[in-house]
TrEMBL record, chain A:
Keywords: Cell inner membrane, Cell membrane, Cytochrome c-type biogenesis, Membrane, Transmembrane, Transmembrane helix, Transport. It is found in: Cell inner membrane; Membrane. Belongs to the CcmC/CycZ/HelC family. It comes from Bradyrhizobium iriomotense. The chain crosses the membrane at residues 12-36, 61-81, 93-112, 124-143, 155-178, 198-221. This is Heme exporter protein C. InterPro entries: Cyt_c_assembly, Cyt_c_biogenesis_CcmC, Cyt_c_biogenesis_CcsA/CcmC. Required for the export of heme to the periplasm for the biogenesis of c-type cytochromes. Residues 4-181 form the Cytochrome c assembly protein domain. It is a multi-pass membrane protein. Pfam families: Cytochrom_C_asm.
TrEMBL record, chain B:
This is Heme exporter protein B. The keyword Membrane applies. It comes from Bradyrhizobium iriomotense. Coiled coil: none annotated. Required for the export of heme to the periplasm for the biogenesis of c-type cytochromes. The keyword Ribosomal protein does not apply.
Length: 263, 222
């Protein structure tokens, strides 16, 4: 089973239909274990019970960057290998990545209130994650601005790759900006080394969230494929109606059937 | 080479003539700077402290405003298809177009900076620092903005969408541009470090911009 075997959407749908229940089950079990472990993790000597926000916050923040990585690989698939499902993968990943980024910002903000005394601070990390969130939103706006999926796919692929090059630059420049304007403030996340009693639940939660992403991503890809099929069926029907009402609409029919084949 | 220089000369000439819209950017820059005292109050000390930031923001918005004309006009009259099909590599043609755009729309902003600095109560050193950082930084704005312009022309959507896509990419340029001018004015950081990074950003975007724009034109125009 190679990647190219999945190029056929029907085969992809059949395979994911078999895999998805298992993935969903594994996600639920791991999430339950992770939540149980993090609920019974000891309180931090400084932060008290609020340290438990970490078990939600850190996996979200980790995935917010991981999803952009997945989208970059998918964009390479669109532009270089012309894999037919690559743009479906890229499109389906964007809203999920935006959601993870938003949750990372939200939980971080809720954690920041008791710890730092403020919901928002123009800290380097917070700012660069906020910019990442803005870039996700811009990418989603680009997807929504164009009706033709294949045209939007290539534009979004270029933007995703440019973003992948730019994100580290933005990250470093924001770090630099922060050190310029804001001398050492009180923001040190817990301790630098995590105790085992925190580390193990955190790792379980990270794996659970990754599985959650894979599950949601595959499900969203299935939805996207079905949505495109519906779209090309509608277009075929529309062109059939147009064909019966006026002569010389054959070329349109041909276009529509070509599109149906592509989807 | 002659083809590229001809392209540059043609674009500059079009931009400077009636309907080209290069000088609109300067007018917009002036308007943004004039609006600032109304927003923050006519306090000269405060204005001179905020001056570099205001000038940089104004220049950023002004260069963004003129960017969506970069490929749009050529696409409308069909010459973009000729450029795409010509024997000159599309990457070089994109770079030439961006260079022409910077000459016609970016340089006037820098020339206007001393006058606007006067309005914001900036002294000679501060004005010079802002003009110098703009000179080093605006090519980066043009060359990264070109990616957005190329995307906009292939999607037939300009304006706001392009601004949403391009503005996050220009954050590093803004950070280091303002940092370098502040370093020159009040210190205590050295001017050299942020200024070199600003130049580096411009050089990087000089490489990435044409390739990304050419890729999106090539994939999008067919």
């Amino acid at each position: 089973m190679t990647l190219i075997d999945l190029a056929n959407p029907s085969r992809f749908l059949a395979l994911t239909a078999r895999v998805l229940p298992w993935l969903a089950g594994a996600t639920v079990i791991l999430l339950a274990i992770g939540l149980y472990q993090s609920a019974f993790a000891p309180d931090d000597y400084q932060q008290g019970a609020t340290v438990k926000i970490m078990f939600i916050h850190v996996p979200n923040a980790w995935l917010s960057m991981f999803v952009w990585g997945v989208m970059s690989v998918a964009s390479l698939g669109t532009l270089v290998w012309r894999h037919p499902l690559a743009d479906v993968a890229a499109k389906a990943a964007a809203p999920i990545g935006a959601a993870f980024t938003f949750l990372a910002l939200l939980t971080g903000s809720l954690w920041g209130r008791p710890m730092w005394g403020t919901y928002w601070e123009w800290d380097a990390r917070l700012t660069s994650v906020l910019i990442l969130f803005l870039m996700y939103l811009g990418l989603m706006a680009l997807w929504r601005a164009v009706e033709d999926p294949s045209r939007a796919a290539r534009a979004a692929a270029v933007l995703t790759l440019v973003g992948a090059i730019n994100l580290p630059i933005i990250k470093f420049s924001v770090d630099w900006w922060n050190t310029l304007h804001q001398p050492a403030s009180v923001m040190r996340m817990g301790g630098s080394t995590l105790d085992k009693s925190f580390l193990i639940p955190l790792l379980v939660m990270a794996i659970a969230f990754t599985l959650l992403f894979v599950t949601l991503h595959l499900a969203a890809m299935r939805n996207e494929i079905l949505r495109r099929r519906v779209r090309s069926l509608q277009m075929m029907q529309a062109s059939r109606i147009a064909f019966s009402s006026e002569m010389g609409a054959g070329s349109r029919e041909e276009n529509a059937s070509k599109e149906a084949g592509a989807a | 080479m002659t083809a590229l220089s001809a392209l540059v000369r043609r674009d500059v000439r079009i931009a400077l003539r009636v309907g080209g819209g290069a000088l609109i950017g300067v007018l917009f820059f002036l308007t943004v700077v004039v609006l600032m005292p109304f927003a923050v109050g006519p306090d000269l000390a405060l204005l001179s402290r905020l001056g570099p930031a205001i000038l940089w923001l104004g220049a950023l918005l002004a260069s963004l405003l003129t960017l969506d004309r970069l490929f749009m006009a050529d696409h409308e009259d069909g010459s973009l298809d000729l450029i795409t099909m010509s024997r000159t590599p599309l990457e070089l043609a994109c770079a030439a177009k961006a260079l022409a755009h910077w000459l016609a729309a970016g340089l006037p902003l820098i020339v206007a900076t001393p006058v606007l600095g006067l309005l914001l109560n900036l002294d000679m050193v501060a004005t010079g620092a802002v003009a110098l950082t703009l000179l080093a930084g605006t090519p980066a704005l043009t060359f990264t903005g070109m990616i957005g312009a190329a995307l906009a022309v292939t999607l037939h959507r300009g304006g706001l969408l392009m601004a949403v896509l391009v503005l996050p990419l220009s954050i590093p340029v803004l950070i280091f541009g303002v940092a370098a001018s502040q370093a020159a004015i009040i210190g205590p950081m050295s001017f050299g470090a942020p200024f070199s990074i600003l130049c580096a950003l411009s050089l990087v975007s000089l490489v990435i911009g044409p390739f990304a724009a050419a890729a999106s034109l090539r994939h999008g125009l067919d």
